[in-house]
Amino acid sequence: MTTTHSYHEVLLAARGISVTRGETVILRDLNLEIRDIKRPGVTQGQVVGLLGPSGIGKTTLFRVLAGLEAPDTGEVLLGPEARPVARGVMGVVAQNYPLFAHRTVLGNLVIAGRRSGQSGAQAEAKARELLVQFGLEEHSRKYPAQLSGGQRQRVAIAQQFMCSEHYLLMDEPFTGLDLIAEENLFRFIRAMAQTDERTTFIIITHDIEAAVAVADTLWLLGRDRDAEGKVIPGARVQAIYNLAERGLAWREDIMSSPDYLRLLGEIHALFPRL
Amino acid sequence: MSDPNPVSPVPPSSSPSPPGAGAAGTRARKIGALDLFLPNRVVSGPVMGITILVQAALVLGLWLAKPVALLPGPQEVLQALARLWSTQGLGPELFTSLRFSLEALAWSTAISLTLSYLTVLPVFRPAVALASKGRFLSLAGFSLVFTLLLSNAHLVKLALLVFAMSVFFVTSMASVVAAIPKEKFDHARTLRMSEWEVAWEVVVLGTLAEAFEILRQNAAIGWMMLTTVEGLARAEGGVGVFLLNQQKHFKLEEVFAIQLLILGVGLFQDYGIGLIRRLCCPHADLTLERRSG
Ligand SMILES: Nc1ncnc2c1ncn2[C@@H]1O[C@H](COP(=O)(O)OP(=O)(O)OP(=O)(O)O)[C@@H](O)[C@H]1O
Ligand SMILES: [Mg+2]
Description:
- Chain A is of the alpha/beta class.
- Chain A is built from seven helices and ten strands.
- Chain A has a domain of 141 residues: 3-Layer(aba) Sandwich (Rossmann fold).
- In chain A, the strands form two sheets. A six-stranded mixed β-sheet of chain A has the order 6-7-8-3-9-10, sandwiched between helices. Chain A has a four-stranded antiparallel β-sheet with strand order 2-1-4-5, covered by helices on one side.
- Chain B folds into two domains: 31 residues, no CATH class; 208 residues, MetI-like fold.
- The complex binds adenosine-5'-triphosphate and magnesium ion.
């Protein structure tokens, strides 16, 4: 396939990340680099998938990338100017979509805007705009406990968009969603990515099908093996797939395309050895 | 797979089910008397109302039947209450006690909440833990100390009751604060809040509903201790002194009457605090199976 796209500046780089908890080495000298991919005539942010089996250290990496936890070694750098990540710079949606239970949906968004320096009126205007965009206007006065799982997830995403525009890091966003809800989320993520060149979704998951369907770049996390085939503890990047290059960037019928199925097979075969 | 920790990949969604769903809700349209005797049933308001009436009638009936001949029946108690109210000035005494208990409640709430919230600062944790151990100490032992330290009788009384309530309040509230899960803090942090703002949002606002609930329990504890405290520092009177005097003369009807009155005032106060809680924290009970109101 001809290269109709080109790599531009670094959006996010993780260099030499190691995390050890007690005796357990979880991440070992992990390096990642996400670059801005530009295609002529297309305004498009990035959707990057970080895929790995359960227990490999994805949530740990998530916390490091979000700036919630400092790694034992290494650093996470953001943007072409390579500023070290600080919490709050990166939008973060954790596995269980946390929200402030004591605030309404609108209140949850407004407080996020206020705390990142917007005036009350600014924050409210932006919040209302996001609620419309996310199809949540009619729920603005509800409390989080009155929302469905999917609505709750969208509010959690919208809340992050109130204060950090361009990066959104999500841990296992597909957990507990049925097929239709999952496809809605794919569509939603793609639509959000298309609104701005700089928008970057980083989706951490163990769901191979979902990751391949939604991402345009895929990083596989896994552990190395020594010469005798024994596992060396500590996850690293094992493979990188450029799905846009393979013509597998998301579209409605992606899940029935032969290329998609072939790639799935490839990754499924690799997974048990990660 | 070499994963040492194979977990089910799709845990059930932890989102709360909408009202009326779940096992209890599937038969909700046919609430019958039978539901009262099945575990985890949610019954309608009218059914619960009838249940309450029946049980109240049972208690009243039992009381009317006078199983223990020594104890006064309802009529005698009500007559005693009327007598105390009209001829012996129970009203003003009750007012003194009510004002005093509210004053103590306000102080102890302010002190206890401040101390509990201060536990976000590690430096205060040992001191607060120590303060909560005051629960084991006897009030009687403090009355002399406070009398020596404080200038007037009202302050002595106030200090005693505030102390007695605060040690329990602090214990409950500090443990609510300590039990806030890490993910709540992390969530606030991802929204660019400073640690002070995190403390305000998560620790103070996030636990407001629990604070009201604890306040409610402590208001009750306050009434329970009020009589003891008023008995220890009698100068100002109050229902406590009144009660002890009646008790000294074995006036059982009067004792019951005063208890009944205190119960009424307490229940009223309890209801009031519950009402304020529901107004301030409408989110509080949304996730409960048995919702009030
Ligand atoms: N506090 C801890 N002490 C020791 N080991 C830990 C601790 N927390 C996590 N681990 C281990 O680190 C590894 C990675 O955990 P992590 O939560 O990052 O996995 P994950 O890839 O997100 O898994 P999942 O897909 O199941 O969510 C696991 O094997 C886990 O047992
Ligand atoms: Mg995880």
